[in-house]
Amino acid sequence: MLESLVTSKTRIKLLLKFFSHQNSGYLRSLAKDFDESTNSVRVELNRLTEAGLLVSEEEGKTKVYKANNQHPFFTEIKNMVSKFLGLDDLMERIVNRMGEVERAYIVGDYAQGIDSGVVQMILIGKNLDQEYLNFIRNKTYEKVHRKVEVSIFEEDPGDISGIMVYGN
After folding, report:
1. Which SUPFAM superfamilies would you find in this protein's record (predicted)?
2. Cβ pair 166, 91 in contact under 8 A
């Protein structure tokens, strides 16, 4: 879906990075993460900044970019990216049908805005339906071609670096 609207693969990677989470990044790290040339990343960063979708600020000698959450289409783009990744549907199904889920976190690469093909989750709750979890893992892989890895805790383990939080 997103590929039919946006023809630049680098631009798609940037949109995924900045609109799937509240991430920031600078040119060289983005080029390294995406395995792209700094020039191709720079061109797309400039285009997205000129369109008002990204904002930048200087941190020392480094220009840091992030999504412009004041842009009129911020929420729509964020929702579109989430649907593209299939995470909104996955998290909603898990929270609603797994049992007593108190919280669900996306961690790992996706929490950093990197589409590695593996979605790492942490579920906090009691009496969770393991059978349904296995079913939803397989369905997610079939639907969005991403492996789902889940860690389950009965209590909140403390400092979780997850950006996306679902549940109460």
Report:
1. Winged helix' DNA-binding domain
2. yes
Q: Mark whether 51 and 15 lie in a shared domain.
A: yes
Residue 85 and residue 113 in contact, taking contact as beta carbons nearer than 8 Å: no
* pLDDT over 60 (residue 124): yes
Q: Which residues of 95-129 are buried (b: 16+ CB within 10 A; e: fewer)?
A: beebeebebbbbbbebbbbbbeeebbbbbbbeebe
Which helix (H) or strand (E) segment is 142 a member of? Answer: helix 130-144
Contact status, residue 79 vs residue 132, Cβ threshold 8 Å: no
Cα angle 97, 76, 32; round to 5: 90
Domain-ending residue, one of 77, 96, 120: 77
| Domains in the chain, number | 2
Domain limits for position 112: 86-167
Quote the DSSP letter at residue 98: S
- Of 52, 77, 102, the residue that ends a domain is 77
Residue range 104-113: mean pLDDT, rounded:
74
pTM: 0.57
Q: 68 and 114 share a domain?
A: no
